[in-house]
Amino acid sequence: MDEIKIIKKDKSITIQPKINIYEVNRKIADENLQKFKENNVISIDIMGAIGAGKTTILEKIVEKIKDRYNVVMIGGDIATTIDTERINRFGIEVYQINAGCHLDAPLIKKTIKNINLADTDIVLVENVGNLICPAEYVLGTDMRVCVVSVTEGPYMVMKHPIIIGHSDIVVINKIEMAELMEVDLEKLQEDVRKINPRTKIVLTSARKGKGIDELITELGFD
Ligand code: MG
Ligand code: ZN
Questions:
Q1: Can you tell me the distance from the alpha carbon of 193 to that of 186, in angstroms, rounded to the nearest whole number?
Q2: C-alpha 65 – ligand 2 centre gap (Å)
């Protein structure tokens, strides 16, 4: 059960919410995963802040695998269709969800009803650019990836332990900017390992295509 902790000066109060919304979401997520598995679909949830490079990473992945696999992309966005249009240019099927600050399992359930999963090999979900609630709302994908950009500064990982803790792969992107941003890549990786020792870390410079092959291997698309 999740708790809400309110800290006021030296008093600390814990409130227990009556209904666990995450549990309701999780049940539907389990159904989604079941649907994907029944159809031999590999599904990936890609999370990260706005501007971290999620769409660029997707473009590079899709470009490399679209001739070998039937790929479908689901994009979550608050207001625009910019990202799904970028991916649609590769000639793959895309679904746009204009959601609030995160996607959730019921939205994915509704969307995949429109997809011919039997003819699909891979579903790539680009979550809404947000580091907070997407972490808690599992969608029912095989894997969850968090994209961190060095442009978010040296404390991005330490300040977002929940999303890092929920990720199977942490991608550290825009590594070519690390020196300029005065971000120590070794320290950033150490921070990730401290929070989540089981997660894989992949360093990328997505615009230049660096690290994409390694990421494709980690995602199991070889
Ligand atoms: Mg994007
Ligand atoms: Zn949210």
A1: 11
A2: 31
